[in-house]
Design a protein that fits this description.
- The chain is α+β, with helices and mostly antiparallel strands and about 1200 residues long.
- The protein contains 41 helices and 37 strands.
- A 9-stranded mixed sheet has the order 16-37-36-35-17-31-34-33-32, sandwiched between helices.
- A hairpin with a 3-residue loop joins strand 24 and strand 25.
- It is elongated and about 125 Å long.
Length: about 1200
């Protein structure tokens, strides 16, 4: 549409619900008081600088240059393990330490440094985003009526800015004027509240004439308003211009991050900047969630800490007893220790004190039981796992250019343990892209398209012909993606102008005219092609206008109070241009459930055109306007059963006297300043929206997203329960359930509804308290009866579905009922909650999460899903068409629901397996290392003498054993992605936590103790007596320590080599490279000055390397230590295989494509599938088999 046309639009008088001029309300008296103290001098920089308001620079970073070091240090030492190592590092500077201070501090410093670098890198990414936003450009008034580009971050309160079409508002602005003559503008708020419909804003009349840059040369005004707050939907202020005061309401407020639409430009004054803006006041970081594995890992750390304290206590007791007996009755037992002349640490006369001191020494010495690098290794592995998820091309949605995005790395392994999925419907399971597909006009149903739900219903009723559509030539067609967005209508009786030949062509004409006129859409003309597109407040409205255009009634222009239509003339059969004078628009609202327009046609007749919900329109029909009521009711019910959204169309003619009376009353209500102004306008509208004549009904489809039924089937095969929480009505929700295969023919449905005869009778009486009590009792009775049905059906192994509406759900979530409701729901194969409010979605999610203790995943795409996403263990945001609110509140964002199967069944399974194995292995290798220290301490009378060199101790976790385990945590795959999807029940290994149970941890711990026992006793006894060096000298402490350490490095690295299922070059480099690095370290460190290398000085070159026994003993000990694990794994693999091992067999034997062998493996799964099309096909087959047997 040309700019000149736009500027002349006068819509203020037509849109009273949102554009009426408001007078001062009682709340405006608060201005100047507490909480309402902001003063803005518009276009007056010098006066404004006296007030110190914040600048427009925004930051989402966690740290600044000055706070990074102290805050990140604090974050690291909040962890119990890091704090413990900090204490031991401090104690290492005392004589109690068994090692040098440097060797104790350096590993901790490296771990903390690595964690801080990770934090810095993540924060740097946020900083880059901030820089991009802060450096966006906007035109700002520089004086003398000149506007120049400036950066967003340079804006100040009081600046006048000019924002162009499709640009974001750089700060919170007060609208002064726009390209429209009445100073209105359209605003898209998807980034704020997730709503796709456009909001209409209007400036105060005093500034509405400022349409040119030069008009602001001498503009001066003062705004007084509320202080910054987080409420998006309220604003109180006043504008003083030329000694006159004008009230400001949310109608004039343009919020940062919302976008200007359908308006060439606006002028606005900056009122809130930076972190004072409402969007920043509402901003929150990703929810702070921790996975169940991480919480259990903390318990394991505390468990090992208890073991550490216990063995330190045992050692101190034995040391105290031995020390006290060193000098008894003048007899010296261990004379070589000189107990008669020693320090307090070995003084027999003060044995209890010595025992306490050796206890502290033991805490430091045995601290290697707790892996110092565990947390940072996990974080590194999880960050890389997130990168793999983000870069997975199988989860990239090319149409919208959107890839998966992990917003937190804390929950990777939780993706492999999901027990229940709670899903929104609209925009999540469906596309939220409305298509006009069917309609009923004059009692006749039109539209031959087939919806996804109808295909599902045909499967449900076993009617193959139901999925076919026959065109005029007798050929079979299938309803595919619409060639025109928003229009998927096929019917040769109506298209191409053929409707003029229908029996009730005059009714059809009025129907199509209503379709073209009854809306608030704005046409846009492509100047190159001349093609008209529409910007509408909702997808439904856009679909209606497009349908009217395609059926011969093209809305192409709005003028001051008129709508211009190119329409097909019923008599001549030609396209003609007609103008309709638009008098009033009575807008749609949730309470009205209808919208009307009042217009005057070319003959001068007054017409009221109305569209609305069937429950509202049917009751407003005149006696003579019900000619097509019965047929239309049938069609509406059919459309609802097909999962379509329906609206009824009706009209009436008005006489001049009736209209004038209405307009007078309506105008008076519109100009009222009382608190019940809106109610008065609704009452006026109520009086004229009666005595309607029914024209017909429309049906638009919100299609299922591609791959939704297949995805749900895979998830169901994986044993994951799926609940649907939707705001749609019960019939629509049920039919979407059939389309998704959550419901199927033969599955008994338990419907708990508020629409019962008893409740309806009580509601007629009007006793609210009696209704409430009876309603709750009725819901409770329905739940109990349903539980009895469930018990009976469980005996026959039949699947059962629960459907409950919003009113009943309110009662079911009360404290004394929710336990019973949850028992019922958990016993059902599928659960559908309809007419749910956002709060109810969150409460249901909380109930499932807290009462079951299982992992819950919520998935949604709109602002109404935020509570549910934040309440669940994992929140998945769909980056669809309903804005970014859900995505910004989620843990992971994906573009389509179907990607959920790969996210969970592939990445979730892998991450769970990787992290579980990684943690178990970490504890194994540290227990193995720590218990060699304990055994040597027992051998040395718990004297606190370490068998290893200080740097051996320090580098064990940090250098020689850390990289292979990180590689395992990043690269491990038990089966390929295709096999993860081919055998979905593999996912149950994570749900049942088979890989990280207490039993599995204790098995790994036992393996560690056994490894330590074999290493210590073989090494100590093998070299205790015989000569070790060439000169005949026996081995000393340095040789024993080096030998045991060599064996440990070999054993733990070979152990991880045996644990890996999927080898890559990186695995080989890290495993064998770590072993080689140990020998290189021995050579380099041993060659240093003895003051530095101490007990390691040339121990490898002069003692170990030349001795054949060193090499033979290393080989023997390594093989001996690995035999128990190898034996256990072999027995378990052959006689008690886990599910993934069976799949590995199938793969290695080349029987993946053998249906019988694959089916045999599937039959070993952990439970039957009750929903999804696989279950549907199995149930159908069973019914056919039973029928055949009966015959």
């Amino acid at each position: 549409m040309a700019r000149g046309i736009r500027k002349k639009l006068h819509l203020g008088s037509l849109l009273p619900f949102r554009c009426g001029t408001r007078s001062f309300q009682p709340e405006h008296s608060l201005i100047g008081g507490p909480g309402f103290s902001r003063v803005v001098f518009c276009n007056n920089t010098e006066s404004q600088r006296v007030l110190t308001y914040g600048n427009n620079y925004v930051t989402s970073t966690k740290y600044t240059l000055t706070t990074f070091f102290p805050k990140s240090i604090f974050e690291q030492f909040r962890r119990a393990a890091n704090f413990f190592f900090l204490i031991t590092a401090i104690l290492s500077f005392t004589p109690l330490s068994p090692s040098s201070p440097v060797s104790s501090v350096l590993p901790l410093a490296l771990v903390i440094l690595a964690a801080m670098i990770k934090e810095a890198i993540e924060d740097l990414g946020r900083k880059k985003q901030d820089i991009e936003v802060n450096n966006r450009k906007v035109k700002v008034h520089r004086g003398e009526g000149v506007f120049d580009n400036a950066k967003w971050m340079d804006l100040e309160v009081g600046d006048i800015v000019r924002v162009e079409k499709d640009e974001y508002f750089p700060a919170d602005l007060i609208l002064l004027s726009s390209s429209y003559e009445e100073a209105i503008c359209y605003v898209e708020t998807m980034n704020l509240d997730g709503e796709t419909n456009l909001k209409l804003k209007k400036a105060v009349d005093a500034t509405s004439k400022l349409h040119e840059d030069s008009g602001f040369q001498n503009f001066k005004a003062v705004i007084k308003s509320e202080d910054p707050n987080a409420n998006l939907y309220s604003f109180i202020g006043s504008l003083q211009l030329e000694e006159q005061q004008y009230p400001l309401t949310p109608q004039q407020l343009l919020l940062r991050e919302s976008k200007l639409k359908n308006t060439d430009f606006i002028y606005g004054v900056v009122i809130f900047t930076g972190h004072d803006t409402k969007v920043m006041q509402n901003s929150t970081g990703p929810p702070s969630k921790r996975s169940k594995i991480e919480r259990r890992m903390d318990k394991l750390v505390y468990f090992l800490f208890s073991i550490l304290v216990l063995i330190s206590f045992i050692g101190s007791i034995f040391f105290g007893i031995s020390t006290r007996e060193d000098l008894e009755n003048g007899t010296i037992k261990r004379w070589y220790l000189r107990p008669d002349d020693t320090a307090i640490y070995y003084d027999p006369k003060r044995a209890p004190v010595a025992a306490i001191l050796i206890f502290l020494t033991g805490l430091m010495l045995y601290s290697y039981l707790i892996p110092i690098s565990l947390y940072i290794s996990l974080e590194i592995a999880k960050v890389i796992q997130c990168t793999f998820i983000n870069q997975d091309l199988h989860m990239y949605y090319e149409e919208a250019d959107k890839a998966a995005k992990t917003r937190t790395s804390n929950l990777n392994e939780e993706l492999g343990q999901v027990d229940t999925i709670l899903s929104d419907k609209t925009g999540t399971l469906t596309c939220n892209s409305m298509e006009f597909i069917k309609c009923s006009m004059a009692g006749t149903a039109y539209g031959r398209g087939v919806t996804v739900v109808e295909r599902a219903l045909s499967r449900r009723e076993e009617l193959p012909s139901a999925i076919e559509v026959t065109n005029g030539g007798g050929q079979v067609e299938y309803s595919t993606k619409a060639a025109i967005k928003g229009f998927n209508f096929f019917d040769e009786r109506i298209t191409h102008g053929n409707w003029v030949n229908e029996p009730h062509a005059d009714v059809i004409q009025k129907f199509l005219l209503l379709l073209a006129i009854c809306h608030t859409a704005v046409p846009e003309v492509d100047e190159e092609t001349g093609r008209i597109s529409y910007e509408a407040e909702s997808p439904d409205e856009a679909a209606f206008v497009i349908a009217a255009r395609e059926l011969g009634f093209e809305f192409y222009e709005r003028t001051q109070t008129s709508i211009l239509i190119h329409e097909l003339d019923l008599i001549s059969g030609r396209k003609v241009q007609r103008s309709y004078k638009l008098l009033n628009i009575l807008e749609f609202s949730n309470s009205r459930k209808r919208m009307s327009v009042i217009l005057r046609n070319k003959e001068g007749k007054l017409l009221l055109l109305c569209k609305g919900a069937d429950s509202v329109i049917f009751e407003r029909l005149t006696k003579n306007g019900r000619e097509f009521e019965e047929q239309t009711r049938e069609h509406v019910n059919e459309y609802a059963n097909a999962g379509l959204r329906t609206l009824l169309f009706a009209y009436r003619e008005l006489d001049e006297e009736e209209y004038n009376k209405f307009n007078e009353e309506f105008t008076e209500a519109k100009n009222s300043v009382s608190a019940d102004r809106d109610e008065m306008m609704e009452e006026a509208a109520e009086k004229i929206e009666n005595d309607l004549i029914l024209l017909g009904a429309t049906a638009v489809e919100d299609k299922l997203q591609n791959g939704v039924p297949e995805c749900i089937d895979k998830l169901a095969q994986a044993g994951i329960k799926i609940w649907v929480l939707t705001g749609d009505k019960l019939e629509t929700a049920i039919n979407i359930g059939f389309a998704c295969c959550l419901l199927r023919q033969g599955m008994e449905q338990i419907v708990i509804s508020s629409e019962t005869p008893i409740i309806k009778e009580l509601e007629k009486v009007g006793d609210n308290s009696a209704v409430a009590m009876a309603f709750k009792a009725n819901v409770l009775q329905q739940i109990r009866e349903a539980k009895e049905s469930l018990t009976a059906l469980n005996k026959s192994s039949e699947a059962l579905a629960l459907i409950i509406d919003g009113k009943s759900l309110t009662c079911a979530l009360e404290d004394d009922v929710k336990g019973l409701f949850l028992e019922l729901a958990l016993g059902c194969a599928s659960v559908i909650c309809c007419r749910c409010s956002p709060k109810q979605k969150a409460l249901v999610t909380r109930l499932v999460k807290t009462k079951t203790g299982r992992t819950t995943l919520a998935i949604g795409d709109g602002a109404n899903d935020v509570g549910m996403l934040q309440e669940a263990d994992i929140g998945i945001g769909i980056s669809g068409v309903e804005g970014m609110q859900a995505v910004m509140s989620s843990d992971i964002a994906i573009a389509q629901f179907r990607y959920l199967q790969r996210l969970l069944l592939v990445h979730g399974h892998w991450c769970y397996r990787r992290i579980s194995t990684m943690i178990c292995y970490f504890f194994y290798k540290n227990i193995a290392f720590g218990f060699t220290l304990f055994f040597f301490e027992a051998y040395a009378s718990f004297s606190g003498q370490a068998p290893y060199n200080d740097w051996y101790l320090s580098l064990y976790n940090v250098f020689f054993t850390s990289l292979p385990v990180i590689a395992l945590g990043v690269l491990e795959q038990d089966v390929s992605p295709d096999l993860c999807l081919k055998f979905p029940m593999l996912y149950q290994e994570g749900v049942q936590n088979l890989l990280f149970s207490w039993f599995r941890f204790l098995c790994w711990a036992f393996n560690g103790v056994l490894t330590a026992t074999l290493i210590f006793f073989f090494c100590s006894h093998a070299i205790e007596q015989p000569a070790f060096r060439k000169g005949g000298e026996v081995a000393g402490l340095d040789v024993l320590g080096t030998l045991m350490y060599t064996c440990i490095v070999w054993v733990v690295n070979c152990q991880i080599a045996l644990s890996i299922n999927y080898y890559t070059l990186k695995n080989h480099i890290f495993i064998w490279g770590s072993i080689i690095a140990w020998y290189i370290f021995l050579l380099a460190y041993g060659a240093m000055n003895p003051n530095i290398s101490t007990t390691a000085y040339k121990v490898f070159i002069e003692a170990c390397a030349p001795a054949p026994s060193y090499w033979l003993l290393t080989l023997f000990v390594v093989i001996t230590c690995l035999i128990p694990y190898f034996t256990h794994t072999s027995i378990q693999l052959w006689f008690f295989p886990m599910y993934h091992q069976m799949i590995q067999w199938v793969s290695k034997d080349g029987r993946l494509h053998d249906p019988q062998y694959s089916q045999m493996v599937r039959q070993r799964s952990l439970g039957p599938t009750t929903v999804g099309y696989t279950a549907h096909l199995r149930a159908t087959s069973e019914r056919c088999q039973e029928t055949h047997e009966v015959q």
